[in-house]
Specification:
The chain has 13 helices and no strands. The protein has 250 residues and is mainly alpha-helical. The two termini are 18 Å apart. 40% of the residues are buried.
Amino acid sequence: MRLYVILFFLTWSDILYAKCIKVDDLNEKEIMIMSLYSLQGNQNKIDEDIKKMKVGYYVDYYDGYSYLIGKDRLKNYELAEFYLNKSANYCFSPAHYSLGYLYYLQGNLISAKKWFTSAKELGDNLAAHQLGTIYKNEKETEKMMENLLFADSNGFTPSITELGVIYYDGTLVKKDLKKAFNYFERSALKNDPLAQNNLGWMYEHGEGTARNVDKAEYWYKIASENDFSLATENLKRLKNIIIQKGITTF
C-alpha cells in the first residue's frame, strides 16, 4: 500500500509560559498590515514599517524568525534564539512555536516539546500537530492522539489526514479502515492532496468503503491536479487497468 505519512517539521528559557504578558489586541491591525505586505512581496515596505512599529514583540519575532529560516539575512540560531525569547515574553504563539522549531532543528526535543506545548496552550494548531508527530516517533500513543485530536477539533487539515494514516496503518492504534476512510474523506474535501490520493486508493480497493472505480479515478484526478505525483501514477495505473480489463466498476 503506497500511502504517504505526513512529516511536517515547516532550551526551555527562564521565561515560563505562565508568566508571559498578554498580547494587546489593539496591535493586531499593524500585524495584519505586515502580513499583507509579506503576501505582496513588498519587502522594502516591510523593512521600512517594521522600524516604526510600536509592537515590540512582533519586531523581535520578525527578527528572530528571519534569522531562524535565513529570510533576508543569513541563518543565525543564536540571534534567532535571542530575539524569539524576547518576543516569547509575550503570549504571542508564533514566537513560542518558532522557539520549539528552533530547538527541534537542534535536536533538543525536551525544549522543543516545552515550547510547542506553550504555543499549543495559546491555541496554535500547528504546534499541537508537531507535538503529535514527535510523540508518534516516540511511540507515545496517548500523547500523540491527545495532540492530534486537539488540532483536529479545530479543523487543522494536516492532523485530520495524519489521523487517517494512523488508523489505516494500525501500528500505534487498533487498525480501523472505516475511521481512516472518514478522516481521509474529511481532509480530501478540504483539498488536501495526500488525503485525496489515499481516498482514491481506498475506493479502488474497497477498504473502509465499497469499491468504486469511478470515485477512485475522481479522487486520483483531483489529487493529481493538486500536483501530488503519486496520485498521477495511481491515476495512470488505474486507467490502464480499466482499458486492459474493459471494466467500469470493480
